Fold this sequence. Notes:
By secondary structure, the chain is α/β, with parallel strands linked by helices. The protein has helices spanning 4-8, 41-52, 66-74, 87-98, 115-118, 132-137, 150-161; strands spanning 13-16, 23-29, 35-39, 56-60, 79-81, 105-108, 123-126, 140-141, 171-175, 178-182. The chain has 7 helices and 10 strands. The strands form 3 sheets. It has a 6-stranded parallel sheet, sandwiched between helices. The chain has a two-stranded antiparallel ribbon with strand order 2-3. Strands 9-10 form a two-stranded antiparallel sheet.
Amino acid sequence: MKNYISIMNDIDTFIFDVDGVLTDCTLNLFPDGNMVRRMFAKDGYAMQLAKKKGYNLCIITRGSDLMVFRRLRGLNIRYIYQGVDNKKKYLDEYCNTLNITKRKVLYMGDDIPDIEIMKSVALPCSPIDAVQEVKDISKYVSPKKGGRGCVRDVIEKTLKIQKKLVLVTKKIVSLFKYTIFLL
């Protein structure tokens, strides 16, 4: 069986669940009946970076929320499937629409409804706080929690392995007789 590093080398598509992956699974309920989910801005940055680097991004979730949809559209994610009971069906539809092979797909989920779709992709992943059954079938378990950086972790790890992300930690600039270190 291939390890996750060798599989990440071939990934060109990221698919994410929402609740428990892009959110921390917290639902704030208000007296008027409205609900609010919390998303992590750093995960959004990583998704935008992946898009700029040419990766495919897709969301497949059982939940259905207009604010979540607006946030994801604001990140320029085109394929957002909400209110989905059969996630594998929408995975198949998405892959057929874009002519994507599942051997190049990473899916991150956190709960029982994600198991079937996770078994269908090359690299099933989960956040550290996923249910045990999901972690058991994951080839990569992020050290980050859902809604707290797991999406950024898996995207950055993939980009680094593929040498598409080079983080500059120190830059030296010489100006006349002064040397300035930018950290």
